[in-house]
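Please check both lines for our workbook:

___
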Amino acid sequence: QKYELAFVDVMHLAEFYENAKAQNMLGYLYCHGKGTEQDVEVAYEWFEQSIAQGFSAASINMGNLLYTYGIDEETRASAHQFYFDCVEKTSVATAQRALEMCEDGLVENPEYQIVWKMRLTQLKQMDAVDEILEKFKSGISDPECHLLILDFVKELAQNGNENALALYRESPKI
C-alpha cells in the first residue's frame, strides 16, 4: 500500500513538473511492479525522459532494465552503453555486471573491459581508504604504523580527499 501512495505522488511530480528524479523513480516503480502493474515498456519511457534531463541514475536503471528484460543479445548488449555513460557513478555491482558483459562477448570493444576493471579497482580502493581513515580516527597504537598511516592520510588530504582533509584538520595527532 505504501508503494501505491508513493506512486500517485511520484506520478504527479514526473508528469506535471517533469522532475527527472521523479521520472526515474516512476520508471523504477513500473519496472519492478511496485505500486502499479509491472510494465517494462512504460518504465523504459520514463527512464528515457529522466536520462534526457541528465539524471545519471536513470542511465544505470535503464541499463539494468535492458540487461534483465532484453529479449535478445543485441538488446541486452545495449545496456552496456547506458552503464558506460555514467561509469564514474556506477556501483561495484553495476561495474561487475558491465565487466561480465564484456567478458561474455556481449560488448565487442575489448577496451571497455579495461575501463570496467579500472572502475572496480577504484571502487575497491575507495572502500580500503575509508577503512584506513576509520582506523586512523579510532587510533593506532603501533608508532611505526601510525607514522605510515599519518603520511598516507596527509597525502590523501593534499590530493583533495574530503574525509582525509576533515580528519587531517580535526586530528590532534597530526
Observations:
- The radius of gyration is 21 Å.
- Residues 13 and 71 are 31 Å apart (CA to CA).
